[in-house]
Design brief:
Helix content is 46%, strand content 19%. It is an alpha/beta fold. It has two domains: 72 residues, Winged helix-like DNA-binding domain superfamily/Winged helix DNA-binding domain (Arc Repressor Mutant, subunit A, Orthogonal Bundle), CATH 1.10.10.10; 110 residues, Rossmann fold (3-Layer(aba) Sandwich).
């Protein structure tokens, strides 16, 4: 099933379902959940939940719904590489440090194993539990640590150059926080996260709804 042509929206919803199940029910003692309950938490329809879970290959009981522990495991088997994937983070400013703190221990199968920066006072230090290297060391460290995913939190003028280095070193997935559109070759998946744009959208609709 992992080789099926699955849309990025489906992958996003599956990740959301797992997060909700872990944090809302993982410690609450609830052993089973129905599709309509997941739908209510995720803001989608029950039919959508069932279609997404068919991709995972897990089906529940008509009487009891889905067993929470088994469902979380099935989603994990679908989303995660069994042996895990290693991530490199480039740019240890305030945002980079926050990401290191946030992801520490959060996903055992997805680990930030190395950080990179160009500032001499950050290189060869351990920052929030992660070793920081010079950006120029990325090829050697990526090969040694088997880094296949990159997070870019550099200033805009450095992001494209960094992205090209990542791709040359075999990275095929990039999470880009830099405020610039990256030009990447086919075969590389990039997710752009623009928090300023998101906040501006929220502010715009807040004003609009306040006037209505």
């Amino acid at each position: 099933m992992q080789n099926a042509n699955v849309s990025d929206k489906t992958i996003g919803r599956l990740s959301t379902y797992r997060r909700l199940l872990l944090y809302r029910f993982g410690t609450a003692g609830q052993s089973h959940i129905y599709s309509y309950q997941i739908a209510g938490l995720a803001g989608v329809t029950a039919a959508q939940v069932r279609r997404d879970l068919m991709v995972v290959g897990y089906s529940g009981s008509p009487n009891k719904g889905y067993r929470v522990e088994d469902l979380v495991g099935s989603i994990g088997e679908f989303l995660d590489r069994p042996e895990g994937q290693n991530v490199g983070l480039i740019g240890i400013g305030n945002l980079g440090r926050a990401i290191l703190t946030y992801f520490s221990g959060r996903r055992p199968k997805l680990t930030i194993v190395a950080a990179f920066d160009s500032a001499p006072d950050k290189i060869n230090r351990t920052i929030h539990g992660c070793r920081c290297y010079a950006v120029e060391e990325f090829p050697a460290v990526a090969a040694r640590e088997n880094i296949t995913v990159g997070i870019i939190t550099t200033p805009a003028d450095a992001a494209q150059r960094v992205a090209e280095t990542l791709v040359e070193c075999g990275v095929r997935g990039i999470l880009n926080f830099a405020p610039v559109a990256l030009k990447l070759p086919p075969g590389v998946h990039c997710e752009d996260i623009d928090m300023t744009m998101a906040l501006e959208k929220v502010a715009y609709f807040a004003r609009k709804l306040a006037r209505d």
